[in-house]
């Protein structure tokens, strides 16, 4: 072997080494806030008044293809939430006589809310533990949005698809 030959050594690598995972990449999901999700929604809030009938509420649910309505007073303040589940319970209690009832007779009054700054993971855990699928977002006493389990799942799936694409691009080049 000639004396001028020397096999490459690790110290010869001048490029900085990178790693596929880091503390920041592994905890990025837990850093996501409700506001990130709200920024991607259309911002439409579908509301109903407590004095309206369930028939009117059911029509709104059907027309907008949603599973819950936020119940607000004349000033727009949150006073409850009316979900499909609330209506089904009333249907079981008063079969054939449900639609004439008022929203205020059926709505959930003790509404769990969150803020736009809350972690999406925390909100999802609260929804899962409480067994409800809709959570109004309230900022300074004002209703600013609605988060659903479907929104969170869709948001996360979109992120995972983007991450998978980035990984493919890194592999392919």
From TrEMBL:
* SUPFAM superfamilies, per database record: CBS-domain pair
Question: Would you say which domain of life the source belongs to?
Answer: Bacteria
SMART domains in UniProt: CBS
Domain CBS per the UniProt entry, residue ranges? 38-98, 107-162
| Taxonomic path | Bacteria, Pseudomonadati, Pseudomonadota, Alphaproteobacteria, Rhodobacterales
**Compositional bias (Low complexity) spans?**
18-28
Which keywords annotate this record? CBS domain
Q: Where is this region: Disordered?
A: 1-28
Query: What is this protein's record name?
Result: CBS domain-containing protein
Q: Does the keyword Metal-binding apply?
A: no
